[in-house]
Amino acid sequence: MTVQNDAAATRLPSAEVRTDLSTRQATLKWVIVIDQKLPAGRAANAAACLAAAVGKALPDLLGDHGHDGSGTVHPGLPWAGCSVLAADAETVRALREKAGATDGFFVVDMPEHAQSTRVYDEYLDRLAGTKIEDLTYHAISLVGPRNQVSKLVGKLSLLG
Length: 160
What we know:
Order of helices and strands: EHEEEHEHHEHE
Structural class: alpha+beta
Number of helices: 5
């Protein structure tokens, strides 16, 4: 899989999109890793925001809409699943650095600035004024080859 972080939506290779397989059999893995010290509301906010960004950038991760027995439409959900994991802030940063330097990963991060401002333009201004080594990450999302993602996050537990 070749996934690059850029502004445009990325098409996944058709061989990667397998809605007929268990999430454990899919060759693609999606995880969100959240700083375990975040309060529950901020952790939920981080997961939702990262998922929205991934859904926009990788629309093929979402399956087709479904219809129930009454004909009501239910929007498509991620066919690959998504595990939400916990780690300390230092581990979140290290994962961001490792995944960001690895080909084949799509990385979305949530710097602290994203949750300390209420105006998006203010967030962008604060982000632009902070060097990458000075950012504090509240959460990250990784999408990539199952074996490589598992190797990075294998020792982490589910967010509880």
